[in-house]
Amino acid sequence: MTGFGALADGGLAWCEDGEVVDLRALGDVFAQPTLNALMASGRHAWREAIDVARSHDGPRPQAPRMRLPFDVADYVDFYASKEHASNLGRMFRPDQEPLLPNWVWLPVGYHGRAGTVVVSGTDVVRPSGQLRAGEWGPSQRLDVELELGFVVGVPSQEPLGTADFADHVFGVVLVNDWSARDIQAFEYVPLGPFLGKSFRTSISAWVTPLALLEPRRVEAPQQDPPPLPHLAGGRDWALDLDLSIELNGEVVSRGNARSLYWTMPQMLAHATSNGATVRTGDLMATGTISGREPGTEGSLIELYGNTRFLADGDEIVLRATLLGDVRGRVVG
Ligand code: CA
């Protein structure tokens, strides 16, 4: 894992190949409690910060406690994996086409809850809710969703094109969008996910700057139909990152992020295409990343065909090439 993080007792740190360097003595943005000031400083400053961090001979704390790396402004979650959207469509709407007609025309998304985004290592309390008509209780179908998230550094008052992505987005985190499938299935019609998702979302403690992901950029899969002009472009921003889900120490899924149908620049362009502004700290997640082959799915409901969900005490660790891990234990 490589990137910037925020130390629990204040100031920023740099992590490269698992080795952490305390950057506080550098002062300025590095002495801030979160990455927000650094993220707002722009692309040129980001490159300089990487160079400074890499050459800084500061204290090297062993297994430091980390806080949420940035103050999350807004949180949006997309649904950009065709395999995941098809798998869930088949389960949630078995009598219809798995993919709804709008899916190939735009990256479908919803606004999540910024205030309940937490840093890796935070326990996840099992949510209670309406599991079906007239029934309230603790979720019996608690699940995970392995996703990438990107965070806006430089704000914008204008719609952003796909070519503006690298000027505005600071970096990428790994995301676990914890999901209560029973609450979700009952509540989601017709306005989308709400309490089945909003109880908690975990992100990695380290934000990997976009510049360090350059060597991992690949062409995304062909889109059919071709996207409208404002969503064209950004197809060279698929990321060849290996992904895995570990359940109680055993790897149960191995996938790759390059399979996503919609890319992150397309998501940002879509999110601002109506004139919505973006702020420093806006977090946008890709949606669950599932591949075609069995064993590459990004959620338990897909991996186990509705038969295995999380029990109290279960621990999940998500991992990805270059990115920080996302760890969380379920408590009752
Ligand atoms: Ca999700």
Write the layout of secondary structure elements.
Elements: E1 2-7, E2 12-16, E3 19-22, H1 36-40, H2 43-55, E4 66-67, E5 75-78, H3 82-92, E6 109-111, E7 117-119, E8 124-125, E9 128-132, E10 135-138, E11 142-143, E12 146-152, H4 165-168, E13 169-176, E14 179-180, H5 181-187, H6 195-198, E15 201-203, E16 208-209, E17 217-218, E18 238-239, E19 242-247, E20 250-256, H7 264-272, E21 283-285, H8 300-303, E22 315-320, E23 326-331
Parallel strand pairs: 5-21, 7-15, 8-23
Antiparallel strand pairs: 1-2, 1-4, 2-3, 5-6, 9-10, 11-14, 12-13, 12-21, 13-15, 13-16, 17-18, 19-20, 19-22, 22-23
Calcium ion binds at residues 77, 145, 147, 177, 287-288.
Overview of this structure, please?
With 332 residues, this protein is of the alpha+beta class. It has 2 domains: 2-67, no CATH class; 75-331, Fumarylacetoacetate hydrolase, domain 2, CATH 3.90.850. The chain is 17% helix and 28% strand. It is built from 8 helices and 23 strands. Strands 5, 6, 7, 12, 13, 15, 16 and 21 form an 8-stranded mixed sheet that branches. The protein has a 5-stranded mixed sheet with strand order 8-23-22-19-20, with no helix packed on it. The radius of gyration is 19 Å and the shape is globular. The model has no long low-confidence stretch (mean pLDDT 97). The structure holds calcium ion. Residues 77, 145, 147, 177, 287-288 line the site of calcium ion (CA).
